[in-house]
Amino acid sequence: MILRHQDKEPKIEKTAYIAPNAMICGDVSIGENVRVMFGAQIIAENSHVTIGNNCIILENAVIRGTENHPVLIGNNCLIGPNSHLAGCTIEDEVFIATGAAIFHGAILKKGSEVSINGVVHLKTILPENTSVPIGWVAVGNPVQILPPDKHNEIWSVQKPLNFPKTVYGIDRPQSGEPNNMPAICKKMFERLSKHAYDQFIE
After folding, report:
1. 88: closest CA among 73, 101, 105, 63?
2. CA-CA distances (angstroms) from residue 9 to 3, 29, 40, 51?
3. Which residues lie across from 73 on neighbouring strands?
4. Domains in the chain with CATH codes
5. Alpha-carbon distance 107 to 112, whole Å?
6. To the nearest 10°, the Cα dihedral for 177, 161, 50, 146?
7. How many CB atoms lie within 10 A of CB 48?
8. pLDDT in tens, 37-49
9. What is the DSSP string of 73-136?
């Protein structure tokens, strides 16, 4: 399914294949010989998504360009099933396995790999030819690659990056303040409401 969003429509090379139930929405550019498989969702909401040549986007992957955070994917990359990419840069020849999550402002350098259920956190830079093991978390710049049970170490790097401020434009509440979920949901409601005006493209 191809959708025009906010007067911008996808540009898809003729040699690309888009599965019938994949979703391509908005300011998306898809290169030569790309394969976007069943159930994959590529959504340019407030920033564009660019996918280079010879890339494979497997089943149920979600690729989302968000406010101030485009997605840039180089050539010869494989994005595994059920993976999630938001507002990140993926250089050439990167492998992202099943269930991996790559967050806003992250950069995966050429030849890097993220194994099954691996995470590359906000604003993290993964150097060339570096691997994130199964279920592990890459965080920071310079990167630290840690097992998921090292929560305190991960949080010490992640907390100053201020995920809610970076992603939603809303500060993390200070101790004793009410949580920020009402404000986050209001902001997302406003952003996502624009999809009510999307238009199908034959």
Report:
1. 105
2. 6, 9, 17, 15
3. 51, 90
4. 2-201 (2.160.10.10)
5. 10
6. -120
7. 15
8. 999 999 998 899 9
9. E-SS-EE-TT-EEES-EE-TT-EE-TT-EE-TT-EE-TT-EE-TT-EE-TT-EE-TT-EEPTT-
Give φ, ψ of 152 to 5 degrees.
Answer: -60, -40
What letter does residue 179 receive in the DSSP assignment? P
The one-letter amino acid code at 25 reads C
**Both tokens of residue 160?**
């100053």
**Residue at token pair 């993964």:** 126
97 within 8 A of 116, measured Cβ to Cβ: yes
Contacts of 173 (CB under 8 A, 6+ apart): 179, 180
- Per-residue burial over 130-148, b = 16 or more CB atoms within 10 Å of its CB, e = otherwise: bbbbeebbbbbeebbbbee
pLDDT, one tens digit per residue, over 103-162 is 999 999 999 999 999 999 999 999 999 999 999 999 999 999 999 999 999 999 999 988
